[in-house]
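Appendix C reproduces, verbatim, an entry submitted by the partner laboratory led by Prof. M.T., so that reviewers can inspect both the input and the predicted structure.
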Amino acid sequence: ALNPCDAVPAPRKNKPKSGAYTVEQVQKIFDLMQNTEIYICVLLGALCGLRRGEICGLRWQDIDLEDRRAHIRHNLDRLPVKYAHAMPPDSEYMPLWDCMKKKDALTVLALGPIKTEESENSIVLPDFLVYEMRELKQEQEWQKTQHGTAYKDLGFICAWEDGTPFDPDFVYKKFHKILKQHNAELGVKRQKVEELAAAGTPSDEKIPDDLPLLRIHDLRHTAATMMLRANVDIKIVSRTLRHSRSSFTRDVYQHVLEDMQERPATLMDTLFKHEAANK
């Protein structure tokens, strides 16, 4: 039978709205995440602009702490078990069968290729991040001794105490959960301040604004925005984000560049306002 819907073009997939945090918000997020499992994930996103799958797929063999470099070689994905079993031995995906929590699970974590060829590149790590990674590596070495043969020594940086890598979806959900909890606590404080004011005893306590509930992928946008606002050359930003072309970076962050167009005029006003005032 003829289906009239076949002639109707399917609607385009809605793109998630992206955003970026301010420097002050990023610092607050670091403070919130510091004692959580995903702290190193947040640092890699906000300081290096890595994608979620790249963060979870990063292994110690990809890192040179002495040279302060990270080589982005893999992406951690979830594959259907049936598809993973049917893959040829020389497949570009490497299923992590030992990390399956349930034997009857329908999906399996797998190390796979990076998004584009340009994405497979090296980046320079900030000293702050190198310090945190050294601390994490020592902690994981201690965990190996505690778990003994039960430890899955797969070399993942973002991993549980037994060496199992984080699921990218877990990182996404945990990030949102912490932000929501923080905002809820701020809401309780605001309510108490309002109740005191209504009772005639106003408080001088200033409650900060809620943190925007952005995606953890938006830490990548945040890194790019911070670099551009700090006047880092667009080609360097593009190289750090591992885009194929700097023109693509320019198109994606055109709104940031447009916001910065007033800077030269402001600079000239600052330099020559004394002369203008004396005329």
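The chain has a mean pLDDT of 87. Additional entries are available on request from the coordinating office.
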